[in-house]
Amino acid sequence: MVCIINNKLISQIAIILILVKVVHSIQIETKKEYVYKEHIIGYSVENRPIYLIEIGSGKEITLILGVIHGDEPQGKYIIERLKEYLKKNMRILKNKKVLLIPVANPDGFIKKTRVNARGVDLNRNFPTKDWGTIRKKKRYNPGRRKPEPETQAIIKVIELYKPDKIITIHSYHRYCNNYDGPAKKLAETMQKYNKYPVKSYIGYPTPGSLGTYAGKERNIPTITLELPNNISIEKSWLQNKDALIAAIKFNINK
Ligand SMILES: [Zn+2]
To answer: Is it the case that residue 47 has pLDDT exceeding 60?
Structure first.
């Protein structure tokens, strides 16, 4: 009995402590008009957490993700720089919310492989109508019909937050602002700043890609930002900082 009461007491105290913490953080957020949250949205095949950072509290939502291909780490570093910049320049986020997934494929990132720990190319693994129709090379392995846990985590974020636009950061020698869905103007806006060509087609079919899933099939403007793969992170950031800020500010509904 004593033990039960103690447990009850402990859980009540725990709830009170959590409430105090929540109230405290809400007060801080309102005072500064500042919202910054970190979530774990899922776990990789090898149980590594996949993080989502939420900045701002506005209605217009931009989802920016990196390293869906583990051997293209540039996205992580650009997103981390963007995060620091946004934290210091919150006025940019008036009426906006930015969701950042720095590393969508944490196992591939650690192993420096394009694919996840089960050998699946996550950017061919989305449940699209054209899923699995092309598998010329092992590196494009679309996986099974049931999406991989990393793909599921991205799908969950799209379903939960319903972003107005998505930017997925890769790297490639043919750098470009590739777009899917109603994103031509958004791609052209980014081009003004990063000077990369605007492309509606990357040059080869990408069945089961995020661009097809979100852009073509769900009409969410989606940019696949292919950074040059042979320049420093610093240079890449300088080339893309204003392009990313412009993309966040871009009002898609106008
Ligand atoms: Zn890629």
So the answer is: yes
Q: Rounded to the nearest whole angstrom, what is the distance from the C-alpha of residue 59 to the centroid of ligand 1?
A: 29
Q: What confidence tier does 132 reach under pLDDT thresholds 50, 70, 90? A: confident
Q: Could you tell me if residue 168 is inside a domain?
A: yes
- Give the active site residues: 226
Q: List b or e across 166-196, with b for residues whose CB sees 16 or more CB atoms inside 10 angstroms.
A: bbbbbbbeebbbbbbbebeebbebbbebbeb
| Ligand 1 center to 69 CA (angstroms) | 5
Q: The whole model's pTM is what?
A: 0.86
Residues with Cβ within 8 Å of 200's Cβ and at least 6 positions away in sequence, in order, are 178, 179, 184
In total, how many domains does the chain have?
1
State in Å: Cα 40 to ligand 1 middle: 23
Cβ proximity of 213 and 127 under 8 Å: yes
160-170: per-residue pLDDT in tens? 999 999 999 99
Token pair of 137 as six digits: 């090379």
What are the tokens at 128? 């699209």
87 within some domain: yes
Q: Identify the CA nearest to 148 among candidates 127, 166, 162, 129.
A: 127
- Domain extent, residue 155, equals 34-249
Residue 194 has pLDDT above 50, yes or no: yes
